[in-house]
Amino acid sequence: MNIITVINAKGGCGKSTIAMNVASGLARHGHRVLLMDLDPQAQVTQWLAAGDGLTAEGTLVSALTRQQSLSEVIQPTGFENLSFVASADGLEDLGREISQTDGYPSMLTQLLAEEHIADRFDFIVIDSPNQISPIMENAIFPADVFIVPFESTKAVKSYASIYKLLVKLRPQEDFRMLHVLSNLSRLSGLRNRVLTLLAQDNITVARSEVRSCGWLAQVDENGGSIFHYRPLSKGSQDMAALVEEVRELFSNGPQAPAEPSSEATSTLDEVTAQAA
Ligand SMILES: Nc1ncnc2c1ncn2[C@@H]1O[C@H](COP(=O)(O)OP(=O)(O)OP(=O)(O)O)[C@@H](O)[C@H]1O
Ligand SMILES: [Mg+2]
User: Fold this and answer.
1) Nearest CA to ligand 1 atom 25
2) Gyration radius (Cα) of the chain, Å
3) Where are the domains of the chain?
4) Closest residue by CA, ligand 1 atom 28
5) Is the pTM of this model over 0.70?
6) Residue 72 to residues 60, 61, 119, 162, 230: CA-CA distances in angstroms?
7) CATH says 2-275 is which class?
8) How confident is the model at residue 58 (pLDDT cuts 50, 70, 90)?
9) What pLDDT, on a 0 to 100 scale, did the predictor assign at position 267?
10) Which atom of ligand 1 is closest in space to residue 11's alpha carbon?
């Protein structure tokens, strides 16, 4: 099974927009896709209008607390080949509770394995919260590929703490990264500053960029997928290119650490120095 987690510790950098549209784009290629909302803000859940998404019943909360099986909370969406697991506001409290349990970062991974979810889906796409938390750790633990959006210099700085967490939870570094410029084309000065910071930290930028697109900003009120809402927009073109890059990444054979472990080192040093 191929698991993609969209992550960064910066609010509003484009995680949910990318998670929703990459999942939908993969499904349009005929892949069986499970989109999981691991953000207590439940953005994607609301976009998909999947139930009310804000009660514990039939959401990830009931699966993680073992009141229901994960299979029971997987629901169909209006999009062919795309299934969904909803978030709920109780997820944040649950995160605090599970942090007392040994091995809590692998709780979701265990559920996926126990219920043989790999037999039913080609891809899982996980939208993660913007706060470092036990729930975010569960989003990190099973992933093969991380998509990290950058829409500001703050997002580059936030990435240092995320990368530190990735390496802590996955010391073998058996994952790959796609660092994606997101919503930056509106301000060329800012875009250049972000590129400079990324280059300083030897962070390789993905081929695909999600340019600023007014339709992408509005798509959430129309069900979430830009491919269905505005198929000819540049948002749709950019998401299609990102989906292609993701597919290529998975078709390139077995996983190998794709990034030098020194990645983000200078930013990490900066963060450590600030914390000291
Ligand atoms: N490429 C884009 N062009 C225009 N608007 C965008 C683009 N990407 C995202 N947005 C808008 O920016 C806002 C933040 O995006 P999004 O919700 O995807 O970020 P997020 O990282 O999931 O935020 P959070 O950390 O709160 O979960 C949303 O209003 C979204 O519609
Ligand atoms: Mg979000």
Assistant:
1) 11
2) 18
3) 2-275
4) 217
5) yes
6) 10, 12, 16, 31, 32
7) alpha beta
8) confident
9) 44
10) 25
